[in-house]
Amino acid sequence: MIYFSDDSNNAKADNICEIINRFRDVAEKPYEYACQLKADKNIPVVGNLCNYIPEEIIVAAGCLPFRIFGESKNTMHSDALIQSYCCSVVKSVLDDAMGNKLSFLNGMVFPHVCDSMQRLSDIWRLNIKDGCHFDVLFPVKIGGHASKKYMIAVLRKFKSDIENILKVKVDYLSLKGAITLLNNIRKNMMHLYELKALYPGIIKGSDLNAVVKGSMVMYREDVDILLNKLVKLLNERINIIEKPCEKRILISGSICSQPAIYDIIEDQNACVVGDDLCTGLRNFDFLIDENVEPIEAIAEKFLKRLICPAKYIDNSSRSEYIKNMVKTYSVDGVIFIFLKFCEPFFFDYPYLKTELDSNNISSILVEISSMKQIDEQIRTRIETFLEIL
Amino acid sequence: MSKIDKKEIPESVLKMKKIMKSYYFKAKFAKLFRRKIAWITSGGPVEPLIAMGIIPVYPENHGAMIGAAKMGNELCQKADEMGYSSDLCSYARADIVCSYTGGGPIGGLPSPDMLICCNNICGTVLKWYEIQARRYRVPLFIFDTPFVHTNYTEEARYYLENQVSEYIDFLEKVTGRKASMKKMQKVGSLSVEAMKLWQKILNTAVNRPSPMTAFDAFFYLALIVTLRGTKVVVDFYKFLLEELTEKVEDNIGAIPDERYRLLWDNLPIWYKMRWLSNKFKEHNASLVADTYTTAWCDTLEFIDENNFIQTLGDAYSQIYLNIGVDKMADKIIRMIDKYQIDGVVMHSNRSCKPYSFGQLDIQKIIYEKRRIPTLLIEADMTDGRKFSDEQVGSRIDFFMEVLKERKGILL
């Protein structure tokens, strides 16, 4: 059997609150969850740091794709390995690894995205001896014949590497099964986002954030079960949503590690109706074609989905995407939430802001760190932005 | 103000200034010469451009000029006002500002007809060129070089081979002319010859005293970066090599009383070149080698001179900044042995993450393998707003004291 379902906890969760709490528990204590899962079921855990990794192959190998957000709030260990002008996610994750908090990992997959992540792979390989090391170097240039052929070759190599190194088998049927499972999760996630856009009060922003974060950590068959239930239960609530939302907000950035932001927004009678986040809709908005050869179908996903700014497809698709979201979801204002030192996102900002300004859409940039709580200054800036919106 | 007698300036410096002046003149007035201009990244494959008569222009070289002219602070301030975070690469920030304002030491670069971006040096260039492609509304070609953490894979080799074809197709489309493979090969041979000469020039520093320092290399580097593949570079480097060889024969060192031999890692701190040069000179320390300028000749092993275009991808994807930290450390260790280095000075460059992240591991490896001390100076290559003369000066003084003590003990 490829998949395991934790029926003791998840199958029993039968109301919205319980389901969300289940996701939140995992999102808040992901390392405990992974250790427990390994202890109970001996499932190999494969860590990752970005959406540009082929989760389907990891799931098909019977492993848990485990997104690491970083828990450390200080840089006690990582200061010895990386400079202060590195982004907080890289520092925090490295700190966790150095502090032996990630020793449960059977393997770690590094993508080819930003310069910091690229060097993190080297630093990790030289200093962290737990688990196996995989570099999955997708093309940076998305589009074109050469890029597609290379993407397929990289996916095939990763499949063979994971088989050889972790001593597992990834066959046609297991890949098909993984694609179907992850497509179901994506469909439900998209549905959740649609519900949130149509009925903003149906689920709190911080709850949706916990669901998304938890789903990137939790065993995927459990995610599927819980999401099915959650979507069903929320659909039943459509007619009883009372409070309308006055100001509709889109947030854009890499990862939003600060759920408090959603509460600050909602306290001002505003709500997040959509996002352009790596840990948000951008991770779910593309389904894999189940009628195509699995590896080629996975490659197609990465070639056709909306790119992250560390990749290149053309000079305008990101701004077009954001403008389109603004229009589709009747957005009143955009909050850019960037991690300090995140070069790809910061480079895009002046252009995106100009584009939004020319469409009379107000925006604000908030610089955060995954290692620090939202401070009063950020709170005040967001509140003021929402007041004058 | 330093009063240098013009007669003391080596002939090579005057020659090179003349060549660079003529190069920028041609680029500035390219339209008059009916030539197209391509902006290209410093680690990008320039040879196909040269072979097709396209003038290459280097925004990174522009960034260095801005830094050396001490105009970085003002331009970076302007970039802040335009919404670019001060944590971003200062070359990119300063160059982007010049594109909009016509500022900088040469009033901005001549407008491009196309952009060629090779990401073998960083991911930053991708964003930088994307911005410039929007600014100038010209076609952008990305030469995508997968990172070589451990092994150069067959998949990457095949991808690069395909991209070389795509690159030539792109140039043919933009220029409306057919590429000549014979010309490409000829340019490739000149490029290889220039790289070999550049290596020989850097090799002169193995002599005691060294006839040149890294500060000289930072200056003479401009030609191999901008015009490799042309005869003018080969001729100039032959001349420079003769000049340096004469100095070696006459036992003339770049530092009058050379006692300590250092290696510099990372890009120069352009706005502090003279200050740093004098600072090390005060301590009789000569920076005889550096990883930055060596990067333009250390992929010779991957190039088949007789099949230049076919092996172009292999070479360009395995340059110093596109390989794993341990491979970088190996190269440094080899340089330490070759140039008989006493200590390593690392510029932890806030503007260049791929060059700087990993330095702390390299520091450890150097100590483990050669027991040599390293000094880490945190700065920025062009934006000097956070640079403190006092702080860096005392760190260098302290480092040199350690070296003196060690040398004393070892002697």
Which key phrases capture this entry?
heterodimer; A: 389 residues; alpha/beta; Rossmann fold; four-stranded parallel β-sheet; disordered N terminus; B: 411 residues; 54% helix
Walkthrough of the structure:
The complex is a heterodimer of chains A (389) and B (411). Helix content of chain A is 49%, strand content 12%. Chain A has helices at 16-28, 30-41, 55-60, 88-98, 115-127, 145-166, 172-198, 205-215, 220-236, 260-267, 294-304, 317-328, 343-358, 376-388; strands spanning 45-48, 64-67, 107-111, 132-136, 247-253, 270-277, 333-339, 362-368. With 389 residues, chain A is of the alpha/beta class. Chain A has a four-stranded parallel β-sheet, sandwiched between helices. Among the domains of chain A are: 44-170, 3-Layer(aba) Sandwich (Rossmann fold), CATH 3.40.50; 245-389, Rossmann fold. Chain A is globular, with a radius of gyration of 20 Å. In chain A, α13 (343-358) links the parallel β7 and β8 (362-368). Chain B is α/β, with parallel strands linked by helices. Chain B has one domain (9-410). Helix content of chain B is 54%, strand content 10%. In chain B, strands 2-1-3-4 form a four-stranded parallel β-sheet, sandwiched between helices. A four-stranded parallel β-sheet of chain B has the order 6-5-7-8, with helices on both faces. In chain B, α5 (90-101) runs parallel beside α6 (124-136). The longest helix of chain B has 23 residues, at 181-203. In chain B, 52% of the residues are buried. Residues 1-6 of chain B have low confidence and may be disordered. The interface between A and B is large, with 51 and 48 residues.
